[in-house]
Backbone:
């Protein structure tokens, strides 16, 4: 029998025949070149690991942690007009495609957990906004939670979904129609948004979905899609038509892993930019710039009474400042007079989106060891000590050793320095890519562990940097200076200073 490169497989399909093919030498060489080229494009993270003087990689791990914290805090701080009163509908795919386990523990369970975290973060950043939840399964749209501003209600409804298993096919058209109906009565001063978490590659629709997309465009509803499988053409069309002023890549992304999936969801907690719309008349644009709100007072009844929102007997609540109707929690809309009821703290927490805290700059050793800032050895926020200069630390170790006997670390550094030229030819080809990557990281990580505020010029550690930009949204150094100016002005008033002198003190305090 003549030898052949192929094996005989009778009555086999095309897939089976392809599986039985034996690659030739040319094909294997081509495949090897493709694998080699793909491997060269992969980021070699093991080359970035550097051992410290103590022989461990603790320094590398700390730098990676600092880089992650700084990556979260470095945002665009340009003051923009944003919609702080948001109305968001979350559409969750509950079809059989969510049973896949490429995202651990499963797409379905991970999506529910991330949605719970997102709702908590959403109402922390947008306390006067509202959320509704819709599911897709068996070709139908299921209402999971009605539009409300109470996060506990949404979280409890999401937890009840764990009892059911995902099944059937999703219907994107039915879900978008239900979301449009829920957002139809949203006031014009707030935003109308839809977040679609789509894990399937198809949509079982009863009609023309392009008609539904046109209705969303007419209703001025913005849509954001996060895919779990691959990019779908109809989802890309949906994003392009509902977000004509933005880049589609900003509103449609496919999750790469669990960490990237969470980052894509949490990114939507920040209010979107308000694009200028052509107003039909100047009177209409001026009339929509003001919004009437009520700040109710907390009451505790000696006997339970029915609330106006749920008709349940409660002993505590808030009285509407217009009609004196009792509601359970805030923020909400009065069921009797439709007045928006909030607290002053809710309005203050939404204020930082309009004027965000500026990013703090990194402090090099030359600036940290200068005469003006040499005394700043601890963090201004948490009073944690800053790391000392490496050269000064080496000199201190050298002074503590016996005369004529160098320190162990210095001897090892001298030995490594003497052997470094002989190893230069081995590491030179990869030095350019590594140095370029380190140059990008140095722009975010401070070599001295100090980060300076541009207004008060105080130094902070990386933990205080992340805490102030993500939670407090204020600079402790700037606030302390304002407190000093106010205390100085109060002391001047008690001493009988003139208003002209007071104005001069305020100006000097602001400049200083």
Residues:
């Amino acid at each position: 029998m003549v030898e052949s490169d192929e094996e005989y497989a009778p009555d086999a399909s095309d897939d089976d025949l392809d599986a039985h093919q034996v690659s030739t030498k040319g094909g294997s060489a081509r495949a090897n070149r493709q694998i080699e080229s793909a491997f060269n494009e992969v980021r070699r993270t093991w080359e970035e690991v550097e051992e410290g003087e103590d022989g461990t990689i603790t320094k590398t791990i700390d730098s990676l942690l600092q880089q992650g914290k700084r990556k979260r805090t470095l945002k665009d701080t340009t003051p923009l007009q944003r919609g702080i009163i948001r109305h968001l509908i979350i559409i969750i795919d509950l079809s059989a495609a969510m049973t896949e386990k490429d995202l651990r523990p499963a797409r379905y369970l991970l999506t529910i957990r991330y949605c719970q975290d997102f709702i908590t973060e959403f109402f922390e950043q947008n306390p006067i906004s509202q959320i509704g939840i819709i599911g897709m399964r068996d070709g139908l749209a299921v209402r999971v939670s009605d539009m409300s501003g109470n996060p506990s209600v949404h979280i409890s409804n999401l937890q009840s979904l764990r009892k059911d298993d995902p099944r059937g096919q999703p219907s994107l058209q039915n879900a978008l129609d239900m979301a449009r109906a829920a957002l139809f009565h949203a006031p014009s001063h707030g935003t109308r948004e839809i977040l679609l978490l789509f894990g399937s590659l198809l949509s079982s629709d009863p009609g023309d979905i392009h008609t539904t997309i046109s209705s969303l465009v007419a209703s001025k509803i913005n849509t954001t899609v996060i895919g779990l499988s691959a990019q779908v053409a109809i989802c890309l069309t949906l994003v392009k038509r509902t977000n004509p002023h933005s880049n589609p890549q900003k509103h449609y992304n496919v999750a790469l892993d669990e960490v990237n999936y969470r980052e894509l969801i949490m990114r939507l907690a920040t209010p979107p930019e308000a694009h200028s719309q052509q107003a039909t008349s100047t009177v209409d644009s001026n009339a929509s710039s003001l919004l009437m709100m009520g700040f109710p007072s907390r009451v505790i009844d000696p006997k339970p009474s029915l609330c106006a929102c749920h008709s349940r007997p409660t002993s505590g609540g808030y009285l509407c400042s217009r009609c004196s109707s009792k509601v359970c929690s805030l923020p909400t809309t009065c069921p009797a007079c439709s007045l928006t009821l909030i607290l002053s703290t809710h309005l203050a927490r939404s204020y930082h989106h309009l004027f965000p805290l500026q990013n703090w700059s990194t402090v090099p050793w030359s600036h940290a060891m200068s005469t003006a800032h040499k005394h700043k050895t601890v963090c201004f926020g948490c009073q944690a000590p800053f790391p000392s200069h490496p050269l000064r630390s080496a000199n201190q170790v050298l002074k503590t050793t016996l005369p004529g006997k160098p320190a162990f670390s210095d001897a090892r550094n001298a030995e490594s320095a003497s052997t470094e030229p002989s190893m230069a030819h081995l590491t030179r080809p990869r030095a350019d890519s590594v140095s370029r990557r380190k140059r990008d990281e140095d722009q975010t990580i401070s070599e001295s562990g100090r980060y300076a505020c541009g207004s008060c010029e105080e130094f902070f550690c990386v933990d205080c940097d992340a805490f102030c930009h993500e939670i407090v949204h204020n600079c402790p150094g700037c606030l302390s200076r304002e407190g000093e100016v106010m205390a100085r002005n109060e002391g001047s008033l008690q001493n009988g200073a003139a208003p002209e002198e007071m104005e001069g003190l305020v100006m000097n305090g602001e400049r200083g």
Notes: The first helix runs from residue 14 to 20. The chain is about 45% helix and 15% strand. The longest strand covers residues 297-306. The two ends are 97 Å apart (CA to CA).
